[in-house]
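To: structure desk
From: M.T.
Subject: fold request, one chain
Message: Could you run this one when you get a chance? Sequence is below, nothing fancy, just the single chain.
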Amino acid sequence: MTINNNEPDKNWLGKTEEYLKNHTWLVLIILISLTLLAGSFRLRVDAPDFNKGETTSWWGITLNLVRGYGYSLCNQYYFPFCSADASATAMREPAPIMLFAGVALLFKESLLAAGVTELILLIGVMITLFFLTREWTGSSFAGFLSAIIWVIYPRSMPLISQVSGDLLAGLGVTFGILFTMRARKSDNIRDWLLAGLGLGIAVMSRSAMLMVALTVMAGLVVERWSLRNYFREWIRPSLLTFAVVLIIMTPWIIRTKLVFGRPLIGSSLVGYNIYRHNYMLGTNDYFRNVGNDESWAAIQALVARQIDLLGTENEAQMDLVYREEGLKIIAANPVHYVLLSGYRFFMLWFDWRVSEAFGYSMGLVEYAIALLQLTLLIFAFIGVKNNLRETRPLWAGLILVTISYMAVNSRMHYTIPIMPLVISLASAGVLRFNKKVI
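Reply: Done. Structure tokens follow.
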């Protein structure tokens, strides 16, 4: 899709588009500088802290790794039988841990350095998002609009004050989809390999991003169906992408097999979340998110009922226990499960009443962010309209990731890695709205 803003009357949008095309790198450098300035101020007034957000687990594993204790962390909140002597973990994906381990070694375990790294990742997403949006819209204006929206998006900048895998996953997704879009035009081997690189890093940063990778690979098989009589040409892009993703994932799969006796594709928390967020399906009070205190009580009750547990189960073994018990509850309450899964759409994209599970009601800020989310989704729909085939790698990945979270557990911060795709589509929607309505 190419959005033509260079109309004869040279309206403001056409003039802006022309200027941005002629001064792309100047404007991009200015935007990077302003983001660095804003991010530095954020780190000064809201410095990273060990107890902030998900820092405890991500940074805890990082420190154990660099201090020679291996990829380990004991969190009895998730896995009640872990201990100092049995703390090997897979609760967090390895790509961010490896990145932050390097930062910790270079900067003497400085959390501030980790925060600066998160800021660099944020800027990396911004730059890649600009090129992604420009790639498929043909508009520099749309590209810069998407970059600006990402920087001011209220859920992105706060992430630099904690250590997590979200921004690296977001960079991987955006980078992978950018080169997927380029490779669909060029059919260049290098572009397919780079697409696989980005998607592989995304999967090893947030397991749910496997849905994006699978969507891309399956989509390539479908859209190249006309080449099926030429098998090599038909299947080559999918195989190249798959090979790179698999190469990136293989060390983790081997490691979890050796350590736990069972290979894990991503995090060991999948079974835990299946049980935690579905254990109450047999009651009439199930239309909600499950908070920390409630989940702790539910896990303790489950462990007490499991008389065949030895008390030495590792994370992979407990993952199976959680998964089995959770699936039993789902099978016994299919109607409640389907209804709750549908309701989770609103928890995922709008954080609807999620805060109540943690002891407070939605306030003005939460409603404002929910309204912003709705606005972005509406404009994303406008951006997709009449452009389904070209934008398939973006919207199909969004749908599959949404469904995967709806099936298990939904909160808005889980959407961070895929928000660049929403913003890219929404930016095109804004331009289309301007052209047709204004």
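Reply (cont.): The first helix runs from residue 12 to 22. Let me know if you need anything else for the meeting.
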